[in-house]
Amino acid sequence: MPRIVFMNDTLVPENEARVSVFDHGLLYGDGVFEGLRSYSGRVFRLDAHIDRLWASARSICLEIPLSQQTVAKAVVDTLAANALSDGYVRLVVTRGAGSLGLDPNRTKDPQVIVIADTISLYPREYYEKGLRIVTAATQRTHSAALSPRIKSLNYLNNIMAKLEGLQAGCVEALMLNHKGEVAECTGDNIFVVRAGTLLTPPPDAGILEGITRGAVMELAHAAGIDCRESTLTRHDLYTGEECFLTGTAAEVIPVVEIDGRMIGGGTPGAITARLTADFHKLVRQ
Ligand code: PXG
Q1: What three-state secondary structure class fits 71?
Q2: Is this model's pTM higher than 0.85 or not?
Q3: What is the pLDDT of residues 46-95, one digit of tens each?
């Protein structure tokens, strides 16, 4: 069955959902996006995703031609049109069609696109046994070059690091910032447990402030787990008791090996298990 896609103001079959070859989203990666999930027919933290999309767009001087309410409704309507109650949504705003030149002032009609599909999850085994990851040589973009807080359509930085991970037989890769500090993974934020305290890099380490990351920090506080943002080095990860990643697609996933160093006992830890369970409860609330 063809999927139904929202484009600008209407729901259309996927074969009618087309963008121009002159769209600067295609020509330059000039645009912003979000990835969201729905659980049992409810979109998780829809408002937070809408806010982050608007923040990303504002940061690149892209004016989204629809209201926040209209886009939020489009997400819900697109899921419904595809009869998806547990689904994945890709929300994309491109700069629109323009001339063959960088000038964003010579583009018009930003395209607002909502695609809904089933989510392809990591195999269950990864959640039970934990992931092995490696550090990529590709650094996370310097925030003076392009802020990692913008969820832009230009993901080549992360894709280069992802390739390095895949070439090493890993599904995720750790990215460091220009100072050599831990930033995040290619599509997930990272947490480590040290002396019973849960630590994650601060926004100024050059990360995307993940919505799952925020939810997990709230859950840790509610569970009485001391949780703080802290500058981290690879040594802090290697010598931690537990490590896990968070993201819309991955949810909470344990990491048991980094660059050949076994983390903790080499099996997912108790704090990871507790927050995974709490996260599952939260998304189904
Ligand atoms: N860091 C980066 C660089 C991301 O792209 C996250 C962290 C986690 O953020 P949320 O808000 O999802 O908790 C992301 C987002 C995919 C996919 O299909 C995943 C992301 C982006 C694009 C595609 O797996 N993760």
Answers
A1: helix
A2: yes
A3: 999 999 999 999 999 999 999 999 999 999 999 999 999 999 999 999 99
Identify the H or E element spanning 56.
helix 46-59
Pocket residue to mutate for ligand 1, from 38, 150, 248, 283, most atoms within 8 A of Cβ: 248
pLDDT of 159-184, one tens digit each?
999 999 999 999 999 999 999 999 99
Mean pLDDT across the chain, nearest whole number?
97
Judge contact between 57 and 93, C-beta under 8 A: yes
Instruction: Tell me how many degrees the CA angle 159-161-166 measures, rounded to the nearest 5.
Output: 90
What ranges in the chain are assigned the alpha helix state H?
24-28, 46-59, 68-81, 124-129, 156-167, 211-222, 234-238, 270-283
The DSSP element (H or E) to which 132 belongs, if any, is strand 131-135
Residue in 73, 108, 129, 151 annotated catalytic: 151
> What b/e readout covers 113-131, taking b as 16+ CB neighbours within 10 angstroms?
bbbbeeeeeeeeebbeebb
Q: Which domains does the chain have, with CATH numbers?
A: 4-117 (3.30.470.10), 124-284 (3.20.10.10)
Ligand 1 neighbourhood includes 152 CB (under 6 angstroms)? no
